[in-house]
Design brief:
This protein is an alpha/beta fold and 323 residues long. 48% of the residues lie in helices and 18% in strands. It is built from twelve helices and nine strands. Strands 5-4-3-6-7-9-8 form a seven-stranded mixed beta sheet, sandwiched between helices. Strand 1 (68-71) and strand 2 (74-77) form a beta hairpin. Helix 1 packs across helix 4. The longest helix has 25 residues, at 126-150. The chain is globular and about 65 Å long.
């Protein structure tokens, strides 16, 4: 990141306002409505029963941010973003709702955490688990599609998805390879919900959900691929290293461990998204740099460890088990 002057700092501070505008506009239906069809401010505010002045200012701010375009005073979501705000399989509204809650928590807890090291949490109720799972599905599906484009899955027939949630990664991998069968390991409430949701679907016979604890449960054996997708950042260095070791031990000869996670520079201070995300992981996890992940793989006996960038803020790192 380049050196900031006062004007650049001021713009950076306003990014929090941009976050609020985007997430609230999604929550109250503005972005979904403008993804479906163009509208004037008057039509939009009347249809959604919103204040016209407030609606106009929010829509014009969304236009300034690049999410919405204006054509002769009729507004619509930018074409490249339409699938993400329109109801359907690509809809990221659940993730935006999760993001909104995350930053509400930051507002309440960041200062107390700095002073005491304590971040107030509460046990997750079933509705919280469902909400989080839907959020991860909404954003994770898009990341999974990018990853499968960069992986050779032609000879991969069995996969273990560690901490795989509602199976959104497993589904994209199965769609990329019709011969692939996946076991998804996650905590029992998640595994039960996810398995029920998949019943009757086209992939129900190829994805199996197993309830357990990825720190203590047995991973099994003879997998062609063990996937850690956005999981290692939830754990400390010691726990993450042990998970990679267990993943490597569960491989068939020639199999691969694949780690997908947020990218961060070695000093953990130049990658903006990775450094900010590390705050969300608080004391229980972290955004792990490449040398750490590479070291865990090599210590587990994996060879040919390599990194592939997936967008600007995410990477996949894979290593192979010797034949």
């Amino acid at each position: 990141m380049t050196q900031l002057d006062l004007d650049a700092l001021n713009r950076l501070l306003w990014y929090f306002g941009a976050h609020r505008v985007i997430t609230v506009a999604a929550r109250v239906g503005i972005l979904r409505r403008l993804a479906e069809a163009s509208s004037s401010i008057e039509e939009l505010s009347a249809e959604l029963e919103h204040d016209p002045l407030a609606t106009g200012k929010v829509v014009r701010a969304l236009t300034a941010l690049g999410l919405v375009v204006n054509d002769d005073d009729r507004y619509r979501v930018a074409e490249s973003l339409v699938p993400y705000f329109r109801t359907g399989s690509d809809d990221i509204a659940p993730f935006l709702e999760h993001h909104h809650g995350m930053y509400e928590s930051w507002g309440a807890n960041l200062e107390p955490w700095l002073k005491s090291g304590e971040w107030q949490t509460r046990p997750r109720a079933p509705e919280d688990i469902a909400c989080f799972g839907n959020a991860m599905r909404a954003i994770g599906t898009h990341a999974a599609r990018r990853v499968v484009e960069r992986l050779d899955l032609s000879s991969t027939e069995s996969m273990l998805d560690v901490g795989g949630g509602f199976g959104h990664w497993a589904q994209e991998f199965c769609r990329a390879n019709p011969d692939l069968y996946v076991t998804v390991l996650d905590v029992p409430p998640v595994a039960e919900m996810a398995g029920s949701a998949l019943v009757g679907g086209d992939l129900a016979d190829r994805i199996r959900f197993v309830g357990g604890d990825y720190l203590t449960s047995d991973y099994g054996a003879d997998y062609d691929l063990v996937l850690f997708a956005n999981v290692l950042h939830q754990e400390s260095d010691d726990h993450a290293a042990e998970m990679v070791r267990k993943g490597a031990a569960a491989l068939a000869p020639g199999g691969r461990v694949v780690v997908v996670d947020f990218a961060i520079d070695d000093a953990r201070q130049s990658s903006v998204m990775g450094a900010l995300f590390a705050i969300q992981m608080r004391s229980f996890g972290d955004t792990h740099p490449e040398p750490s992940i590479r070291g865990w793989m090599e210590a587990a006996g994996l060879r040919n460890v390599r990194r592939t960038d997936v967008g600007t803020d995410r990477w996949l790192i894979e290593g192979e088990k010797r034949d």
